[in-house]
Amino acid sequence: MAYVREERNEMPMYKGEFQRAAKRRPIREVLPIPALRSPPAGHQGSSIEEAFASDPRQLPPEERQVFRWQGGETAGLEHLRNYIDSGQLASYRGATESFAHGEDNPVNSGTRLSPWLAFGCLSARMVVKEAREYERKHGKTSSGKGIGKIGSTGTRLHTELLFRDFLRFSALAWGTSLFKIGGPFHVKGLEWSHDMELFQKWREGNTGFPFVDAGMRELAATGYISHLHRQCCAAFLVRDLRLDWRMGAEHFESCLLDHTPDANWGNWAYRILQRPCLVETRAKYPVEEHVTTVEVVAWPAVHDARLDHTLRWCPELSGLSKDLAREPWLLDTVPDRRISIKPYKDSPLWFCAANRTNWDYEYFWLPGHAWTVKPGKSEVQRSDFQLGKDYPRPLVPPLNVELDLDALPVKFHGWGTEPAVRRHVWGGRKQGRPPTRSDEQSEAGAPEARPRWEANGKGKGTGKRGGKGKGHQPFYPESGAGCQNQWQKRRREADWRA
Ligand SMILES: Cc1cc2nc3c(=O)[nH]c(=O)nc-3n(C[C@H](O)[C@H](O)[C@H](O)COP(=O)(O)OP(=O)(O)OC[C@H]3O[C@@H](n4cnc5c(N)ncnc54)[C@H](O)[C@@H]3O)c2cc1C
User: In the chain, which end has fewer C-beta atoms inside a 10 angstrom radius, N or C?
Assistant: First the structure.
């Protein structure tokens, strides 16, 4: 496909329409790799080697990095060959399939082709050709049995690459609006903060939310994080810290090995796309009461189920049980109110906080409630770990999300070992989701299908949503640590002046 400037207004707003149109067209042949011409006179041989030897310098090796890229076409082709030959395509999960939860979609999966694609070392056409050839020889597979996008894994890779094209063409159509505060969708009605202290904490991975912090630390140290992490860290900056999204995009730009303006700024622009009537809903349910990017607590439960990735980047949490390391604020808080977190229906959460449009069937393991917490003496005490000293307290009031442990789409996980703080985790059959171990036991007449958490109560009726008119309480009054949100500050200042 080619971009025609005069037809830019016909560029679809959503990727699906673009992808359907693109898939109807034949893919042009991959061009042969051109033979290199010799360098211009005066730049032969040793002068090029000398230039490379002096600068850029090699970064010290980062031991925690699970994969290292080597620049250039030769290395890119080799990586593509190895990826295809190893058969990994058969279980491929695309970057944007973040809604497909479970073992076959761990937080750091993906082809890792993006830096080579970004620098033009590999062409998307070549990748699709290789994927198709593999499927012709070995047959097609579809990981995830109908959950997620339809089509074989090779088709999914093609779909991801089309999203790349979509953003590239869209960026041409959007023009400079891509870099303006309202973004290409001209978002209005929201106030953005420029609080440098908050921004610095996000950049350094000191937000107090381990999944976000792991991503931000990995990004700074290696220049790469997976799509899941990019979505989550970006959504947290936009929706919870309420910082100007362009600050986040600039930071990503300064770190990412695979940076391209269309992919980076385009993906960020989608993070500020609002659900209809969001501004009104936010007025009704003041957002500063709790974190709204639920993924920061929910995703590690299924995409980093033993917390290996998070703990690699947040080693200070390694001594805690997995439950506590995922939600360390449980050490000095107590549950407050049980709230609904179903997006788009009855909660103030953003539409598409990351990808939550398929909530009813993709999130069957989230029963739909979470607990706000308030400072208090927790039932779990650790003498060797102090929140606020060994690891930061959360920058915005956190949530303790109810997980249906019996329904989790991961076989091996680290959750449920701290019953004292897990009173609200429960199992049980819900309409529209596959039967779980506990359902099967119930049907077989097992005496105790759901005993573990019920003993502690589900919290039914433990309070209603707080909402309009409920005065905001500083989350950590003694340190003010939880009150740094500029939005909250401004609100409190306004209250005080009135
Ligand atoms: C806030 C944010 C910023 C991002 N910035 C960039 C960026 O600067 N450069 C970049 O290449 N990708 C960017 N992405 C998209 C995506 O995260 C990466 O392309 C992906 O993580 C690369 O890993 P992979 O090669 O293993 O992906 P795979 O899942 O193997 O996908 C194959 C290829 O498809 C393309 N692709 C997949 N998803 C996207 C997407 N959402 N947008 C654009 N291309 C996509 C990439 O070229 C990728 O290599 C960003 C995503 C977010 C949420």
Answer: C
User: Quick check: pTM over 0.85?
Assistant: no
Residue 251 alpha carbon to ligand 1 centre in Å? 16
339-349 burial: b if 16+ Cβ within 10 Å, else e = bebbbbeebbb
The CA 225 to ligand 1 mean position distance, Å, reads 10
Q: Which two tokens stand for residue 381?
A: 């005490």
Name which of 415, 493, 402, 496 is nearest 456 in CA terms. 402
Atom of ligand 1 nearest to the CA of 258: 9
Which residue blocks in 274-342 are alpha helix, DSSP H? 278-284, 295-303, 308-313, 322-326
Q: Is the CB of 237 under 6 A from ligand 1?
A: no
Which of 114, 166, 257, 271 most suits a substitution to test ligand 1, by most atoms within 8 Å of the C-beta?
Answer: 114
| Distance, CA of 350 to CA of 272 (rounded, Å) | 9
β-bridge partners, 333? 375
Tell the CATH topology of 11-16+69-176: 1.25.40
Of ligand 1's listed atoms, the one at least distance from the Cα of 114 is 49
Q: Is 117 in the pocket of ligand 1 (CB under 6 A)?
A: yes
Q: Which residue has the tokens 């109908």?
A: 146
Mean pLDDT by runs of 10 across the 498 residues of the chain is: 70 82 87 81 69 66 87 95 95 77 80 96 96 94 56 90 94 94 88 95 98 97 94 92 96 98 95 71 64 89 94 97 94 88 59 54 81 88 93 94 87 84 56 44 36 28 30 34 36 31
Other Cβ atoms less than 10 A from the Cβ of 277: the count is 10
Q: What's the pLDDT score for residue 416?
A: 85
Residue 198 φ then ψ, to 5°: -65, -45
Q: 83: annotated binding-site residue? A: no
Q: How far apart are CA 138 and CA 445, in angstroms?
A: 44
Options 1.10.579.10, 3.40.190.10, 3.40.50.720, 3.40.50.300; CATH of 196-497: 1.10.579.10
Say if residue 210 is preceded by a cis peptide, omega within 30 of 0: no
Q: Residue 18: enclosing H or E segment and its boundaries?
A: helix 15-23
Cα(162) to centroid of ligand 1, in Å? 11
What are the domain boundaries of the chain?
Answer: 11-16+69-176, 196-497
- pLDDT at position 120 is 95
